[in-house]
Amino acid sequence: MGFKCGIVGLPNVGKSTLFNALTRTAAAQAENFPFCTIEPNVGEVGVPDPRLEAIARIAKSARTVPTRLTFVDIAGLVRGASKGEGLGNQFLAHIREVDAIAYVLRCFENDDITHVEGRIDPLADAETVETELMLADLESLEKRLPGLEKRARGGDKDAKAQMVLVERALALLREGKPARMVEVAPDEKRDFRALNLLTSKPVLYVCNVDEDSAASGNAFTQAVAERAKAEGAGAVVISAKIEAELAQLDETERREYMEALGLAEAGLDQLIRAGYALLGLITYFTAGPKEARAWTVRHGSTAPKAAGVIHTDFERGFIRAQTIAYDDFIALGGEHGAKEAGKARDEGKDYIVKDGDVLLFKFAV
Question: In terms of Cα–Cα distance, which of 295, 302, 306, 338 is closest to 49?
Fold first, then answer.
């Protein structure tokens, strides 16, 4: 599995330009007026990981298959979206379908590009987006509460448990705080996720800057970084304009251009790393003569769960997993060398997969 990340923000902050660059498509229009993106554009990209290429070389794999990452470019939100302004209801419905939300914030000044509220203030923009999502959550929970109360009075245990979570979330939302700040016990997480609250989703702030600020950021991005740190959210600095240019270059030209700009890595790489950290995702690999492939699972996944990402039969009929750590696979020249050195282990159903593991599953159906 990869993850689905919704790209949201006010109109004209660079969402569609960033989407086009990240997915290397022209699927989303990037025009200088609100609501140019009406239906959500969905794009998949391969997650760049140099480890995959290294494994493929050693395994002499005919091809490499990276794990996939899905971006959803959602129409620009405006103040009043929770009450149906702009494309309100469509916007909110599309956000419910994603795993995490990337708030694209305008952190550059340019008189040629209008701002829907007539000023450049990324923190205020973030507040506008967050407030609309909180208002939508507040309305959703307040509508559900009477029904839950009625069922709870009738002795419905599930309704009582849900009521506790709803009331906890309502208390925070009424204070102007997002639902992701609700304290949830491990045994409550499943029920809390079932509430499907917009502001319960992890947030990543994407600071869209001009070319001169791409390497070191600016005063706007510093303010955003401080907000993100206080909230436990992620934050990355990206120039959508540069990313759009990089998307048109071959690998050699990309490296040269990035060096000239003082960029250590492309914005896509930053976004993926931050997104993985946000959702607690890790990568494991499979390798053979036909292909070397990367797979994504959540941190803490057992070997059978990891096998199930490949095919449900693998999880259902799981027997064991031959496991080689990435460093051992590379240092010892692959599976044969790892076996000779005693670094290829057979792990059972309770094994917790680690980032970089090279796995071979044994199963029977």
Answer: 295
From the list 194, 178, 192, 73, the residue with the least C-alpha distance to 136 is: 178
Local confidence band at 86 (pLDDT 50, 70, 90 cut-offs): very low
Q: Is the pLDDT of residue 49 over 70?
A: yes
Predicted TM-score (pTM) above 0.85: no
- At residue 154, the 3 state secondary structure works out as coil
Q: Are 292 and 65 in contact (CB under 8 A)?
A: yes
Phi, psi of 129 (to 5 degrees): -60, -50
Q: In angstroms, rounded to a whole number, what is the distance separating the alpha carbons of residues 220 and 211?
A: 14
Report how far apart the first and last C-alpha atoms of the chain are (Å, whole number): 22
Tokens 């460093």, located at residue: 327
- Give the containing element (helix H, strand E) for 163: helix 157-174
**In this structure, is the dihedral angle defined by the CA atoms of residues 6, 11, 13 and 17, taken in order, positive or negative?**
positive
**Does the pLDDT value for residue 300 go beyond 60?**
yes
Distances in Å between the alpha carbon of 290 and those of 60, 61, 275? 8, 5, 30
Q: In what order do the strands lie in the sheet with 358-363?
A: 63-65, 291-298, 281-287, 358-363, 318-324, 345-347
